[in-house]
Amino acid sequence: MKQTAVSKIAEMNGKEATVNGWLYNKRSSGKLWFLIIRDGTGILQAVVSKNDVAAGVFLDCDRVTQESSVQVTGLVHEDRRSPGGYELQVRDMRLLQIAQEYPITPKEHGSAFLMDHRHLWLRSSKQTAILRIRHEIIRACRDFFDSNGFTLVDAPIFTPNACEGTSTLFETDYFGEKAYLTQSGQLYMEAAAMAVGKAYCFGPTFRAEKSKTRRHLTEFWMIEPEVAYLDLDGDMDLAEAFVAYIVRRVLKSREQELKVLERDTAPLEKISAPFPRLSYDEAAEMLKGQSTGFTYGSDFGAPDETLISGKFEKPVLVHRYPAAVKAFYMKKDPKDPSKALCVDMLAPEGVGEIIGGGQREDDYDTLVAAIQKHGLPMEPFEWYLDLRRYGSVPHSGFGLGIERTVGWICGIPHVRETIPFPRLMHRLTP
Ligand code: 4AD
Ligand code: MG
């Protein structure tokens, strides 16, 4: 018999349906069993009446344990009191496997315990909702670039280059040579932009983050557009249109999941372009006299970002940081060469940085000097320097961290719940 997804059960009202799922919960009242079944698309109440089913089926209701896999068949009818508004009057049930005592019960568990059981924790309604929203965000990212003239160009995972500083590199042995797991596809997207004009990559990136924060993973997913003949202002226009699009898409397509997460959507409804823009100097001014420990000239720490972004209802674009605290590839501001033509997007509600990017140094000599100044070896960058040897043009791009974006939109404070199987300094399993 054809199976029906719980999310589509309304279409079967008044008809017989078969649902394949797992037992979420159950209770009995004498001649009745109420089985709460989840199938990954929703939750359905199945009612088993002793008089309606074979004796074995009724006994199975007693035996069936939480997370056992079951198939139920019966008549669907509307019932306001049921979760989802429909109920299935069971005619037959097949027990596919009786689950052993399930470690995750409806009671409270500590986060370490849940993280150890992440492979099972994913089955909970909250985690499923996060997975679905993450998927929607990724689809929205792709759709945005795909429908705006960008070409997807995949960047390699093994690289000889340090893109974002040498302190967070994961080193591997590559047939006797040193290779690193990529920190960012950017340098490759710069090459791609010179080929196709507008390029983007989407993939996992790696950073040996030795700090334990709620914002840092050692393996995270980043989407990185890069555009030839684009300056910093154009880059900021692109970033705000992109983020506004993602938020709108999730609000429109994932209403149900946001409800499961009890996410207050009012702050998200306010996200539309343009976003406020302020220079590093203006942002630093806001930190004066605050207790975040910020000193002028340094990069913003998490408390600084929280304080700055907390002043706005929309994401804020902070541009022109001191060049000294930013990556080697950033173009200096011709009006003030101590500043880089870079931008960070800080998301509201205390989330902080979700995007980092900017205009790239396009002059050969200046770039060589910057590589030297950062103490980086020249040889692995020879291919990258070719981009400045052959038809160099102004160009810009950025990287959006998927997990921080998922965390913001879902209202989940820690990035460990925003990726199916998080990798953190002290976590490699499951
Ligand atoms: O600001 P970042 O380091 O910028 C770059 O990597 C540029 N090369 C991107 C580019 O211009 N193409 O990282 C970009 C974003 C951050 O804003 C943040 O959202 C995310 O990547 N990110 C992390 N997310 C989770 N865990 C980490 N350890 C992260 N590091 C960066
Ligand atoms: Mg950054």
For the largest beta-sheet, the strand count, sense and barrel status come to: 8 strands, mixed
The helix tally amounts to 13
Specify the structural class. alpha+beta
Number of domains: 2
Bound molecules: 4-amino-1,4-dioxobutan-2-aminium adenosine-5'-monophosphate, magnesium ion
Radius of gyration: 26 Å
Average pLDDT score: 96
Q: Would you identify the CATH H-level superfamily of the largest domain?
A: Bira Bifunctional Protein, Domain 2
The end-to-end distance, rounded to whole angstroms, is: 36 Å
CATH class of the largest domain: Alpha Beta
Order of strands in the sheet with most strands: 6-10-11-18-17-16-13-12
Quaternary status of these chains? single chain
Low-confidence stretches: none
Strand content: 25-35%
Kindly describe this structure.
This protein is α+β, with helices and mostly antiparallel strands and 430 residues long. It folds into two domains: 6-97, OB fold (Dihydrolipoamide Acetyltransferase, E2P), CATH 2.40.50.140; 116-149 and 241-417, BirA Bifunctional Protein, domain 2, CATH 3.30.930. 30% of the residues lie in helices and 27% in strands. It contains 13 helices and 18 strands. The protein has helices at residues 55-63, 111-116, 118-121, 125-146, 186-196, 232-253, 255-260, 266-269, 280-287, 302-309, 364-373, 382-389, 402-410; strands spanning 16-29, 32-38, 43-49, 69-78, 86-97, 151-152, 158-159, 171-174, 177-181, 198-206, 219-228, 277-279, 316-319, 332-333, 336-340, 342-347, 352-359, 395-401. The strands form four sheets. An eight-stranded mixed beta sheet has the order 6-10-11-18-17-16-13-12, sandwiched between helices. The protein is elongated and about 85 Å long. The model has no long low-confidence stretch (mean pLDDT 96). 4-amino-1,4-dioxobutan-2-aminium adenosine-5'-monophosphate binds next to strand 11, strand 17, strand 18 and helix 13. Residues 163-164, 184, 186, 207, 209, 216-217, 220, 222, 224, 353-357, 397-399, 401, 403-404, 415 line the site of 4-amino-1,4-dioxobutan-2-aminium adenosine-5'-monophosphate.
